[in-house]
Amino acid sequence: MEAIPIYNRKKNVGEQLLPGQSLPTDSALGVLWDVEKDAFIFKVNMKEKPRTRRGMLSTLSSIFDLLGLVSPFILKGRMILQQLCADNVKWDEPVDEFMEKEWDFWKTCILELSNVRVGRCLRKKGNGRIKQCSLHFFSDASECGYGVVVYIRSTYEDNDVFCNLVVA
Q1: How many degrees, rounded to 5, is the angle at CA 70 between CA 67 and CA 76?
Q2: Under a CB-based contact definition with an 8 Å cutoff, are residues 147 and 65 in contact?
Q3: Positive or negative, the Cα torsion across 13, 16, 17, 22?
Q4: What is the pLDDT of residues 109-137, one digit of tens each?
Q5: Which residues on adjacent β-strands are paired with residue 94?
Q6: ∠45-50-56 over CA atoms, to 5°?
Q7: Which residues, 6+ apart, have CB-to-CB distance to 147 below 8 Å?
Q8: Which of 24, 28, 84, 117 has the most crowded CB, counting CB atoms within 10 A?
């Protein structure tokens, strides 16, 4: 906090903290940031919606993932919706028992997103100088989805290598 000029700090952050208190979680563009651990975090508040295509799409759309960091978690929900479309299930028609169980299982698993933390800083801690930096792109596809991920790899003067996720 001392390295950030007061005029660039968010009002009331760090000034009212008592010794031993942790910094608050902040948010920008729907992305939550754990200021203390300098990591992106995810909170999912699933409101109960009808088990119809419309209700499921509403639930799935409520998960905001600007950087695509949790796309693998969301893919299964999209696959369920895709299957409902292929089966010509109407927007407000209740889904069958099998799809309802699949959906309920996915909703249970998606709550695990609260355990996902992605480091925000693209440099290692400390003031070491970077001697080489490169971006690495990976992609893959299958019949049910595709994915792309970008990492940054930095080599420091002491030959220490640090990699971090940039976007997915």
Answers
A1: 130
A2: no
A3: negative
A4: 988 888 888 888 898 887 789 999 999 99
A5: none
A6: 65
A7: 71, 72, 139, 140, 141, 168
A8: 84
